[in-house]
Amino acid sequence: MNHKIKLTRCLFYFSLFFLFLIYLFSFPGEILEFQKNSEEKTLVGGSIKHFFYFTYLTIVGLVSYIDKNFFIKTSIFLLILSILIEFLHLYVPYREFSLFDILANVSGFILGFFIITLTKKYIKKWYE
């Protein structure tokens, strides 16, 4: 296996681990909030983080599994994950369920999917 593929897959698995750590474990307040005087979470501010993270996660996941069989399986996994992770917030303390976050997650997945679909042949050449 190509070292570029191995590195990309390690990045994908680390990103999945980080996602579960941040999304599912109960921490009061925002983990990644760097401001001391944090304001109330805004609709756009909170959901935009979801959008960018799922765009990133989809791009890394699909690049690491670019061949046809795993590409489809990884796409389905990431789409289900983008919806399921938000429903799990119903059961995790200090986390709240939001339909806007689901919309942001799925929108990020769709953008990442289209970016990879359009650039698939160039990515395959890069791996060679």
Task: Give me the secondary-structure topology.
Layout: H1 3-24, H2 43-64, H3 68-87, H4 99-127
Helix pairs in contact: 1-2, 2-3, 2-4, 3-4
Q: Output the number of helix runs.
A: 4
Instruction: Indicate the proportion of strand residues.
Output: under 5%
Distance between the termini: 11 Å
- Rough outline: elongated
Q: Could you give the order of the helices and strands? A: HHHH
- Count up the domains: 1
Fraction of residues in helix: over 70%
**Class from secondary-structure proportions:** mainly alpha
Radius of gyration from the alpha-carbon trace, in angstroms? 16 Å
Q: What kind of assembly state do the chains in view correspond to?
A: single chain
Search tags:
mainly alpha; 128 residues
Written account of the structure:
With 128 residues, the protein is an all-alpha fold. It has one domain. It is built from 4 helices and no strands. The protein has helices at residues 3-24, 43-64, 68-87, 99-127. α2 (43-64) runs parallel beside α4 and α3 runs antiparallel to α4. It is elongated. 22% of the residues are buried. Residues 34-40 have low confidence and may be disordered.
Summarize the structure.
This protein starts with a helix and ends with a helix. By secondary structure, the protein is mainly α.
